[in-house]
Structure formats: structure tokens, C-alpha cells
Design a protein that fits this description.
Elements: H1 3-7, E1 10-12, H2 17-27, E2 31-35, E3 41-46, H3 47-55, H4 78-88, E4 93-96, E5 102-106, E6 122-126, H5 136-139, E7 146-147, E8 150-151, H6 152-161, E9 167-172, H7 176-184, E10 191-196, H8 202-205, E11 218-222, E12 225-227, H9 231-240, E13 245-255, E14 259-263, E15 269-274, E16 277-289, H10 291-295, H11 305-314, E17 319-325, E18 329-331, H12 335-346
Length: 351
């Protein structure tokens, strides 16, 4: 690797986790190597390390050293790194000098890891009117709005197909005949079962139409979000924790472009922060769900899926959040977000 590439994999050991996640997103290899004040290798952290730390009660504002692996694997030559990498299929091997400073990295370019076969059904809620994308949705239903060469729903379906999830159940309402016509003429011949809402049932109520149809764990997705995260890890987390619902949540970092003042009695200034950054976990609208949730739905009752989650909690069932980075989530719920999705997938200037 050249020097500029290596820099994308290195961060200081006093970074907050939110900054480490951004650095991991930038290098797109799922790992960051941490160095001390003398630039000696201190440890490493992966997206999985961060996820486990957050799930154990850690905060996104905590220092990265609290979640890091302090005994990272290292090599002292390119040949040694190559042997180690391919022996156990590691992500990246750091090559260090005699003083422990990183001089190169080996990431096995040309040896892309294959995705596992999950073979799970996918339910897509595609019945909404998409009012936030008006005026586009006056002509097309939101799922058929193109993002580059394909409509968003087809991009979502192809992402699931990369994990051999080929069984699709699509809930429709608004402009449903256009939806069906598009896929009837589609040369890819997707395996789709259609479920027609006679009245709007919200983001969760349409699942009642699938009673008796779901016999295995399934993905449940809104038709405006695309994930590039590791679906295998999501399912593994869901199964290991015996969840009935797992929400896929994205860690978002929001910078306030102003100085923020915390004010006390009589206008006393208690604290001032210049352009602070806040981090929180937001719902992507993607879920992993057990069939029993469907069987417990009321027929033809409009309900949001977050309310379904709350009902399951009240019944004492296990529900949880699987956190991913914000860079692994693309949303097209509003026009500016639609343009950002197009740019990420196809580059600037694409229609």
C-alpha cells in the first residue's frame, strides 16, 4: 500500500468511538489500527469490536482504547504477512518495524470473500404513498423510483439475492398495478408473492396478510432503505440472542454548525461547546423477525412496526438492536437523500 492508503487505516488511541467508526467507513475494510503518541502500534479495533462494546453498554463517545484489541496480530515482512493472511483469511495484516511502527499493510487484494448463503425469505413493505418524495410519487410508486439504472426496490432485492435470499413477499397498496406490471415484464424473473392491502395498514399492519405464510426467520424491510452491512452477522446476532425481532440501527453522527450554550438560572452560562457533534442510533426500517410475530398480528389493523416492537416487549419477548455504521445505510425517504444515494451508487452526475 502507498502511504496515503496506509494513513486511512491508522488512528490515535484516544479517539472517541464515533470518530473511529468514521475512519473504518473511510477505508472500507472494517478495521482501524491504533497508535500511541510515538506512532507505535497500540492495538486495533474492528466494526465488530465496536458493535460488541455498544451492545455491552458502552457509549459511542467513549475512547476507542476501551473497546480495542490490545494484542493485534503483526508481521515483520510482506512474505510473512501474506502467509498469515491466507492461512486464516484475516482482514488486514500490519507490517511493523523493530520499534513497532507500521510500515505497510497487507489486505489480500484480489481475494474477495464470498457471501454466505442465508436462504431466508424477505418481506418488503411497498404499500405507502411516499409523500416525502412528492411530486415523483404522483407518477410512480416510491419503490419504482429509479436510483441510477434500477428502481430502489430492485436494488434492495438484488442485495438480498447476493446472500441467496430469493423468496420475496411484497405488500402493496398505492399504485400496486404499476408495481406488478413492472415485475411481470422483468427479465430477471424474481420469485415474488404479492399481498394487496385493501386499506392502508401502516408500516407494520400489512404483515397480518402473511399469516400462515412465514415458517422461518425472515427479513422485513421498508422499500426506501438499502444496507451494505454484513447480513450474516445480523442473523447470527439475532439467533444467538433468541430475539423475536432485531432492529437494524445505524449509528449517526450529527455536527451542529454553531456554538451551543447550556443556560442555567437567570441566564447563567453553565457550559459552552463550539460546533459539537452528537451521536445516536437511528432505526433504518430494516428488521429480522420471527414467524410468531406475524401470527400474533391483528387482522386489517393499521399499526406502525415500532408499535409492534413495543407490543412484543410488553409480552416479555426479546427484542434488540444490531448497530451498524451510518456508511452502511442508504436511505431515499426524501429527495436530498435520494440524490445522495444515487451519487454513492453511481457517482456524481448520474440520473
Amino acid at each position: 500500500m502507498d502511504k496515503s492508503e496506509i494513513e486511512n487505516f491508522i488512528g490515535k488511541n484516544d479517539l472517541p468511538l464515533s470518530k473511529a467508526m468514521q475512519a473504518i467507513d473511510k477505508n472500507a475494510n472494517g478495521i482501524l489500527f491504533l497508535v500511541d503518541e510515538n506512532d507505535r502500534l497500540f492495538g486495533c479495533i474492528t466494526d465488530g469490536d465496536i458493535r460488541r462494546f455498544l451492545l455491552s453498554g458502552g457509549k459511542i463517545t467513549d475512547q476507542v482504547s476501551q473497546a480495542a484489541n490490545l494484542k493485534p496480530l503483526t508481521a515483520h515482512s510482506s512474505d510473512e504477512a501474506k502467509t498469515m493472511y491466507h492461512k486464516k483469511n484475516y482482514v488486514v495484516i500490519p507490517i511493523v518495524d523493530g520499534e513497532g511502527r507500521i510500515v505497510d499493510l497487507y489486505n489480500g487484494i484480489g481475494n474477495e470473500k464470498k457471501r454466505g448463503a442465508l436462504n431466508l425469505p424477505v418481506v418488503i413493505n411497498a404499500g405507502g404513498r411516499g409523500t416525502r418524495l412528492d411530486p415523483f410519487t404522483r407518477v410512480l410508486p416510491k419503490p419504482l423510483i429509479p436510483v441510477g439504472e434500477l428502481p430502489i426496490i430492485e436494488l434492495i432485492m438484488q442485495e438480498y439475492q447476493s446472500y441467496q435470499c430469493d423468496e420475496f413477499h411484497i405488500i402493496v397498496n398505492y399504485k400496486k398495478e404499476l408495481m406488478k406490471a413492472y415485475f411481470n415484464d422483468n427479465e430477471n424473473h424474481y420469485n415474488i408473492s404479492w399481498y394487496d392491502e385493501t386499506v392502508p395498514l401502516g408500516t407494520g399492519g400489512g404483515l397480518s396478510l402473511l399469516k400462515g405464510k412465514m415458517h422461518d426467520t425472515f427479513f422485513f424491510a421498508n422499500c426506501d432503505a438499502l444496507l451494505t452491512a454484513n447480513y450474516e452477522r445480523m442473523i447470527e446476532f439475532h439467533k444467538q440472542n433468541n430475539n423475536v425481532i432485531t432492529i437494524i440501527g445505524a449509528v449517526k453522527n450529527i455536527s451542529i454548525p454553531y456554538g451551543v450554550i447550556e443556560m442555567g438560572i437567570n441566564g447563567a452560562i453553565e457550559e459552552m461547546k463550539e460546533k459539537p457533534e452528537f451521536s445516536f442510533v437511528t432505526n433504518t426500517g430494516i428488521y429480522i423477525v420471527e414467524p410468531e410475530v406475524v401470527e400474533e398480528m391483528e387482522d386489517n389493523v393499521s399499526i406502525g412496526f415500532p408499535d409492534v416492537v413495543e407490543l412484543q416487549k410488553q409480552r416479555g419477548k426479546r427484542v434488540a438492536v444490531f448497530p451498524i455504521s451510518e456508511n452502511e445505510w442508504m436511505d431515499m425517504g426524501q429527495i436530498p437523500e435520494l440524490e445522495r444515494m444515487r451519487n454513492r451508487l453511481y457517482g456524481e452526475g448520474q440520473v
